[in-house]
Design a protein that fits this description.
The protein is an alpha/beta fold. The chain has six helices and eleven strands.
Length: 221
């Protein structure tokens, strides 16, 4: 599996993702600068966490216009796998690959903690190593992680089975306890919790590793 990790000014989780994909899983991983457009040869594009462009205007509002994200939109529309984590999730909603928006946390505080979430379905590429209903413990670190969408959009997400991860102890006030959603095709995933920070025992949990390792199966097949 060839992995590309988008790097913006202000990204701070890009190397964490690289460590998981290249260091732990041994997959070729290329760091893609935000001004690049060439995503050729990649199987997975990761939009990492951090504070792209300093989160000026609002989270992800500037990153959506970067050449790398414009290329990512085309990559996703062609069926490529795209994963947005934390700030990456915010960017994916801004660029229109996922519906809804991420807004200020319910208590207006930055939340940095480990939180439990439930796997809602196990038939997506992202969740094939998990069981439906399995509880994962993953770290969060965000001030604007409250998922919000209008009632019609929420109803569509639920009816289409696009909610992949749901908080058990909603830490930020997200509508419907949503922690992660996919597009209708299932090849784009946005999630606020950080699976790359829970990929080896020394970090306190390996619950996030399965999200990445499960992607190796369809590519190998």
């Amino acid at each position: 599996m060839n992995v590309g990790v988008i790097v913006f000014p202000g990204s701070n989780c890009d190397r964490d993702v690289q460590w998981v994909t290249a260091g732990l899983l041994g997959q070729p991983t290329r760091m893609v600068w935000h001004e690049e457009r060439d995503l050729s040869g990649l199987d997975l594009v990761v939009v990492p966490g951090g504070f792209s462009y300093g989160d000026y205007l609002r989270c992800g509002a500037i990153a959506r216009f970067s050449p790398a994200m414009q290329a990512t939109v085309a990559f996703a529309e062609a069926g490529g796998l795209v994963l947005g984590i934390c700030n990456g999730f915010q960017i994916l909603t801004e660029v229109g690959l996922l519906p809804g928006a991420l807004v200020r946390n319910r208590d207006l505080h930055f939340r940095c903690e480990t939180t439990p979430l439930r796997v809602e379905r196990s038939d997506r590429p992202w969740s094939r190593t998990y069981r439906q209903g399995q509880i994962l413990n993953l770290p969060i670190a965000h001030g604007e992680g409250r998922y919000h969408a209008d009632p019609e959009t929420l109803a569509e997400l639920e009816a289409n089975g696009q909610v992949l991860f749901r908080y058990l102890e909603n830490p930020n006030g997200s509508c419907n306890d949503i922690a992660g959603i996919t597009n209708t095709a299932g090849n784009v995933l946005g999630m606020m919790p950080h699976p790359e920070r829970a990929a080896e025992a020394i970090a306190g949990s390996v619950d996030g590793l399965g999200l990445f390792s499960g992607l190796l199966e369809p590519v190998a097949a």
